[in-house]
Amino acid sequence: MIEFFQPRSLLDISMEVAIAIVPLLVIFMIYQIFFLKLPKIEVVKVLKGMGLTFVGLVMFLYGVHIGFLPTGNTIGETLGALEYNWVLIPIGFILGFVVTFAEPAVRVLCKEVETASSGYIKEKTMLFTISAGVASSISLAMARTLFGIHLAYFILPGYIVALSMAKIIGPTFTAIAFDSGGVATGPMTVTFIMAIAVGAADIIEGRDAIIDGFGLIALVALAPILSVVTLGLLYKAKERKNV
User: Fold this and answer.
1) Beta carbons of 109 and 126 less than 8 angstroms apart
2) Phi, then psi, of 153 in degrees rounded to 5
C-alpha cells in the first residue's frame, strides 16, 4: 500500500487556510478604506463570513485528511482485491451520482442557472443532468483502472464531440456546460472518489497507482460538459417543435 495519506495536525491545516484567507481580508480592507466605504454593519457581516469560512475550511480539510482520504483509499483497495472487482464500475456510478448530487458548488450553479434563465432551465433538471454525467464518467474511470485503458481514448473524442455539439446548441448552453465541468470537480469528488480510484489501482495486479489511478478528475470535468450540451440539444429540439 502506498502511504499517500498521513495524518496532519490541526495547527498545520489552520496555518494553510489562514495563508489563503488573510490576503483576501487585506485586499478587502484596502478597498473598504479607499473605495467601498461600506457601513459598519456590512463590514461586520463580511468579517463574520470570513471567520466562518476559516473555521469551515479548517474543519473540512482536517476531516478530509483523517477520514475521507484514508476511507476512500481503503474502500478502493478492498474492492480492487475482490475476485469480482468489476463491481467498482456500478459502485463508481452510484457514488458519483450521490456525491455530485450533494456537491454544494453544483447546487449553487443549478440554482443560478434557473434564476438567470427565469425558470426556463429548471434547477432539478440541471442537477440530475450533471449528476448523471459525473456518475457515468466515474464508471468509465473505474473501467479504465480495471482494464488499463489509456486516458487519451476518453479525453480526445470527448472534447471533439463537446466542441462539435457546442456549435449546434449556441452560446447559452455552451457557457453553462463548461462551467458545469468546473464545479463538478469539487472537494467531495476529489477527496473521496479519487482516493477510491487510487486505492483500487494500487492493489490491482498490473496497474500503476499513478498512471491508472489518476486522470479521474479529467473525466469528471469532461462528463458534465457532454451531458449539459446533450441537454441543450434536447431544449433546441423542443423549441423547434413548439415553433
Assistant:
1) yes
2) -70, -20
Q: What is the mean pLDDT of residues 174-191?
A: 85
* E strands present in the chain: none
Return the pLDDT at 122: 92
Measured CA angle at 176 (ends 175, 182), to 5 deg: 95
Are the C-beta atoms of residues 75 and 199 closer than 8 Å to each other? yes
Please answer whether residues 228 and 180 qualify as being in contact, where contact means their C-beta atoms are separated by less than 8 angstroms: yes
Give pTM, 2 decimals: 0.79
Instruction: Using alpha carbons only, give the angle 206, 6, 66 rounded to the nearest 5 degrees.
Output: 110
The pLDDT value recorded for residue 109 is: 93
- Number of C-beta neighbours around residue 8 at 10 A: 14
Q: What's the rounded mean pLDDT across residues 127-131?
A: 94
- Give CA–CA dist 135/137, Å, rounded: 5
Q: Where are the domains of the chain?
A: 7-63, 81-242
CB 177 within 8 A of CB 171: no
Across 23-52, average pLDDT: 93
Non-local (6+) Cβ contacts of 34 within 8 A are none
**Count of residues in the chain:** 243
